Amino acid sequence: MVATPRQLLVVWHGFTGATHAMAEALVVSAREVGGEAVHVRMLHAADATAEDVLGADAVVFATPETLASISGAMKDFFDRSYYALLGRCEGMPYALLVTAGSDGHPTIAQLQRIATGLRLREVAEPLLLCTHAQTPEAIAAVKQVPAQELRRAEELGALLAAGLELGVF
Description:
The chain is α/β, with parallel strands linked by helices. Helices cover 44% and strands 21% of the residues.
């Protein structure tokens, strides 16, 4: 008998390539580590629904920090999904990936409050990439994520896939 693959969902949004690059590195690593035992889906926040989350065994929320908050598209995802998820995903493992120009902690706190309301279970420390972009030009510029930062995303993907495969979460 072949076991049904566990499902890892990555809901992401980004503007300048940094969040996408980090989320993609996470996904590639999770697929490599999880093999046939873990199915990994990466959905843009605009396309993700509550049903996508409910079909997953674990979820990653990946967003840039915009004005000390989650991105508008990620907020829209939660606005569309929160009440449909309420009381239906309690205990689901989750992780966070945030890219920011200078801080990121307000966005992490905001996402953790949302996850607390949904009764999700955080299974990894939030992954924060600080780009140190401070001028309008640097903030809007396409980002090249350093290899060592991509490795951090790969490690998180590997952790999540292994945890799902082994039934740790």
